[in-house]
Amino acid sequence: MSVIDSIDDILIVEDTATTLNVLMDVLSDAGYKVRPASDGKSALRSIQAKSPALIILDIMMPDVDGYEVCRILKADEKTNSIPIIFISALGDEDKKLKGFQVGGVDYITKPFYSEEVIARVKAHLNLRRMQFDLEESNATLVAEIKERKRMEEKLRESEEKFRVIFENNSSAIAIVEPDTTITMVNGAFCQMIGFTKEEAVGMRWAQQVPPEDLDRLREFNRQLLANPLDAPDKYEITFYRKNGDLRQAWMSVAMIQSSRKIISSFIDVTERKQAESEREKLIVELQQAIAEVKTLSGLLPICASCKKIRDDKGYWNSLEAYLMKHSSAQFTHGICPECMAKLYPNFMHTKPTE
Q: In terms of DSSP bridges, do strands 182-185 and 54-58 run parallel, antiparallel, or are they unpaired?
């Protein structure tokens, strides 16, 4: 039940018609919404149908007296917060005391003074309004606390998932401040750089970059901080391991907008770069070899007598030495039939025995 719907709703319970009418006229003229009940039972039914903001309750009634009505209302969680003002005769001190004991908040005495009745009703309705406001504030606060706890639990779950993924990722990952101070690293990063977590956290990543690459790194960070969406998300970096070895890596970055921290992941490509360099070197060597082999297809100065070949520097080389130097050909030695007949005539004329 909201404050607006109930704050001016007053139930007057009085079995004497004259008294009931006087109270209704006084409060109606003061602008309050008033409904009557002539006995305790009808009052309870009326309250169950719609709870009033305040009850003015006569003590002495024939069926269910005011004390019992008050006990019933205070025992019910739905109605126990409704303020009850008892009606008593002047001088009924014992009845007033008992009324307070069963849960009443105030008294108005017969004969009534309009100003006093209105003042007491106004005071307790103001308290009732404050109670409503407090209850609503408490309900809002409880809801906010529950939502905050839910969000904190969700955040803890997210952080735990992030930590598990972060720690167990095969890629080397570090979280750094805009000034390159490292705030968090995983095991793969420590393995890549050679520092322990305790050593890595707090150091500046720029300290591990060769001086000749610092300007390029600073420019990359400047672009990233100025406009994260337009900055390149990959960067080839050279860095020193703890032991002084110079390594190369591809660095991928993403900015955490809320904290301006940078998540950097690294793939060490040192061996791949070395392999590429060796491959390029081999290609060059092969191209040179092919070029040298192609020179054999041109005109070669060869001695008409001894068959030696003159090289580019003017030296004469044996035919087999020249070919072995300028091609991939390898030589084995044998004797042709003509030379065999010339050098070993007896062997050539010998027939195999039967």
A: unpaired
* Spans of the chain, pLDDT less than 70: 1-7, 90, 228-233, 289-299, 327-329, 347-354
Q: Mapping DSSP to helix (H, G, I), strand (E, B) and coil, where does residue 54 land? A: strand
User: What radius of gyration, in Å, describes the C-alpha atoms of the chain?
Assistant: 52
Q: Helix (H, G, I), strand (E, B), or coil: what is residue 50?
A: coil
Integer Cα distance of 266 and 170 in angstroms: 10
Total Cβ atoms within 10 A of residue 225:
13
Q: Give residues with Cβ within 8 angstroms of 174, minimum separation 6.
A: 182, 184, 185, 186, 189, 200, 205, 263, 264, 266
Residues 19 and 117 sit within 8 Å (Cβ to Cβ): no
Identify the CA nearest to 70 among candidates 135, 2, 26, 11.
Answer: 11
Sheet-wide strand order for 9-13: 33-37, 9-13, 54-58, 84-89, 106-110
Q: Residue 331: is it exposed, middle or buried by C-beta count within 10 angstroms (0-12/13-18/19+)? A: exposed
166-190 pLDDT, tens digit each: 888 888 999 988 888 999 999 999 9
Amino acid 304: pLDDT = 75
Predicted pLDDT at 263: 85
Q: Which two tokens stand for residue 245?
A: 């070895």
- Paired with 309 in beta bridges are 302, 317
Q: Which amino acid is at 206?
A: A
Specify the pLDDT at position 285. Answer: 79
Structure tokens given for 69: 């009505």
Phi-psi region of 55 (alpha: psi -120 to 50; beta: other; left: phi over 0): beta
pLDDT digits (tens, 9 = 90+) for 217-276: 777 777 777 776 666 667 788 899 999 999 998 888 887 777 778 888 888 889 888 888
Q: How far is it, in rounded angstroms, from Cα 55 to Cα 138?
A: 25
End-to-end CA distance of the chain, in Å?
Answer: 134
